[in-house]
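Can anyone check this?
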Amino acid sequence: MIIEEEISNFIMVWSVAITLFCYSYIIGKFIPKGILRFMAIFPSILILLLLPLRLTTVYLIGPSSLLLSWLSTFKLLLFAFSSKGPLSSNPPLSFPHFLLIASFPIKFQDKVESNHNQIKVTSLNWSNKLLVIFILCSFFIHLYDDDKKQNFHPIILMTLYTLQMYTGLEIFLASITVIIGKLFKVELEQPFNKPHLSTSVQDFWGRRWNIMVTRILHPTVYKPMVKACSHVVGRKWAPLPAVIVTFAVSALMHELIFYYLKHEKGAWEGWEPCWDSMCFFLIHGVCLALQIAHKKVFEPKHELLPRVMSCILTMTFVVSTGICLFVPALVRSSVFVKARTESTAFVHFVKNVYVQHTCPLST
């Protein structure tokens, strides 16, 4: 009954969200962009921030909070003030496309390159490899109970958690892209661009990792901060504080997701900020700002290190800081323990439903 109630809540949450997107689409038809449109859409943004509190399971809270409370709210903010956001276009988006883009981390691809099919096949092959790794990690995750996880070295344990988190996120976003692309016969940009081949922190965050989040943070936080800081430090150096502020906003949004994952209905007690997670994003923001400053000062014509060495150093930095600072915040939120418990409960739920429908007399 608990799972049935959670499924009912999930349907309710997304029904309300779709209703809010419909309302925002209608508002966009009658109110021009600016403060009046923002005031009309603000209740929708507030409700989207509160909707994940209706859910209790990790597998539903995580995706819903990422899609609705972060990406959708930022998209609506751009829709309220800017004519260049994902929900704004000339000519205006059709109603179905508006709902799709407001709901999911997708972007319609304007031009299909001649080698797109090869890229697509490679991406699908890589997704298959990730799926195998994810299944293996799901097997190992059952060993992470209080008794058996003592057999793992803490670094190995955190590495497995990191692999589980990364593959789960990549498969989730890639699945959305593939399913929507097939259902609506449209070409969509891939959510990841081989992050393991990143040659720098700037390359990792700007062009390869979770591209849709980057596309949202750039116009909503980075560009306004560059404009504001230009009056203080000049246009040349304005990107440096803008980058750090952008990563700080990303840290706050992750903190909000951590709260959703950890909270219990009606309870604010026991919640503490994940300072190590915030440090993770601030460290990466400072490193990215230093890299930009280095390029502005020295204007190097060639890369300092060979590409292979740059990839190794970049991924070592990203993975090590993730294991030391980001993943522990998920562990404290009991994400992996809850995921293991929920997986077991869901299997029993499906099994019971199957038995009830195939052998009604036995119940």
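Reply from J.R.: I decoded it. The chain is about 75% helix and 0% strand.
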